[in-house]
Amino acid sequence: MITSAKSTIPEILRKQKDFFQTGQTKNVTFRLEQLKKLKDLVINHEKSIIQALKADLHKPEFETYATEIGVIKEINYAIKHLKTWAKPKKAAVPTDFFNYSAQIYPEPLGIILIISPWNYPFQLMISPLVGAIAAGNCTIIKPSELAPHTSNLLAEIISNAFPQEYITVVEGGVETSQQLLQEKFNHIFFTGGTSVGRIVMEAAAKHLTPVTLELGGKSPCIVDTDINIEHTARRIIWGKFINAGQTCIAPDYLLVNQKIKQDLITALQKTIKEFYGDEPASSPDYARIISPRHFARLAEFLKNGEIISGGDSNPEELYISPTLIDHVSLTDPVMQEEIFGPILPVLEYTDITEAIALINSQPKPLALYLFSQNKKLQAQILQETSSGGVCINDTVMQVGVSSLPFGGVGDSGIGSYHGKASFDTFSHYKSVLKNSFWLDLNWRYAPYKGKLSLLKLIIR
Ligand code: NAD
Question: Which of 118, 170, 182, 190 could form a disulfide with 146 if both were Cys (CB 3.0 to 4.6 A apart)?
Answer without folding.
Answer: 118
